[in-house]
């Protein structure tokens, strides 16, 4: 149920606006909360007596662990004896008891609403214009599970959860340093979603971190539910298919990027963390590269680069050379291609675009349908498109094989799946209309998209620039930890510049 929060404000003669402070009178505070929650079924306001003083407990029932609330807070408070009221009782509970209230009390209604909707409980005391905060969150949350999109052979099997505080604990457990800086604030005019920014002060340039935090605080959106909502405010790149923001669901990958000088951003309610800046070559890197032997990790990385080229350009090259430069193909291959294409009514490049679009329709259908039904989509698609379409002479078998190989190759680099699809269509269209010069134009278009990305103070293709010492140590290939102990450190590289 959505809670309707009405924040009253008062304006001074000078025009400065202040948010309403809590009242000293308990009854006035109750009236304000009653009006704000507007009879919501999960709203709970209960008068209690402590030291014979009038107090009240305020919370949202479904977000609070009732057992923890009683054992840690209410039971010790219930056993207090004596006669204290107002400020004396507030100071006594805060300073002279071991009850673990938050050190900073709530002073205004906006803060109070944030804590209540985040699973905290508030203790109000008559005669005090502050509320004590009890950390008793108990809202339903998904537990730590295995990564679903970033599989690995070795290393951690943990993935982030939807709860920001659990994720914070997994990060702190891996980076046990007082120089790990964690900053949290709220965004979203209506949702007040918590955003947490992480960076390691020893590696990350402080100026870059401050700039990112300032961008995030300036976001003016009514609602934020996922990290994708805020990525356009972090990544200032415009007009490019690529972006300088990366995503991960793995805490170990996240922590590794922090130790490289990157900035991590997490949105409460989503298990995917954002990494900034993110460079082109990092999309070809996996965690297993650092646990396998260097020669095999290098081989797999090179294979990923080849798969990227196949996924983007293979159908376009096939269309260009088959339609405009058949003399470049072997005679037997050329005979097979022309025998399969002569029976089809559509131009070759139109077939290639049609097959690419059909593959995306099949993928989307399998993704959106329920799992028991979605698994059958691939079987039906293979029978109808793969067999019936060729038998009916609608699609050539050769172009279907080429497009299928490109589709499979794109799955090897899942982070690039979106730009790969668009670039593949661009390559096919340019090759079908202009032949080999069209391929050159499409290649230039792809390179411009890569160069156009703004990744903090670095080029998106930084590691491929002349003089980069990381190109073969941790770029296209991977060297041994024993031979190269230095890592990609943004702070160090910024100082060198």
Model description:
The chain is 45% helix and 13% strand. It is of the alpha+beta class and 497 residues long. Strand 10 and strand 11 form a beta hairpin. Helix 9 (294-323) packs antiparallel against helix 13. The model is unreliable at 1-18 (pLDDT under 50).
Unreliable parts: 1-18
Instruction: Give, in order, the helices and strands.
Output: EEHEEHHHEEHEEHHEHEEHHHHHHHEEH
Report strand %: 5-15%
Instruction: Name the average pLDDT.
Output: 84
**How many beta-strand elements?**
13
- General form: elongated
Largest sheet: 5 strands, antiparallel
Kindly, what is the distance between the CA atoms of the first and last residues, rounded to a whole number of angstroms? 52 Å
Identify the notable features of this structure and list them briefly.
497 residues, alpha+beta, 3 domains, five-stranded antiparallel beta sheet, four-stranded antiparallel beta sheet, 13% strand, elongated, disordered N terminus
Concise description?
The chain is of the alpha+beta class.
What does the secondary structure layout of this molecule look like, with pairings?
Blueprint lengths: L8 E3 L5 E3 L6 H12 L5 E8 L2 E8 L5 H13 L7 H11 L12 H9 L3 E5 L5 E4 L29 H11 L5 E8 L5 E8 L5 H12 L9 H8 L11 E3 L2 H8 L4 E5 L5 E4 L17 H30 L7 H11 L6 H21 L2 H21 L5 H14 L6 H18 L1 H16 L2 E2 L2 E2 L30 H7 L1
Antiparallel strand pairs: 1-2, 3-4, 4-5, 5-6, 7-8, 8-10, 9-11, 10-11, 12-13
Helix pairs in contact: 5-8, 9-13, 9-14, 11-12, 11-13, 11-14, 14-15
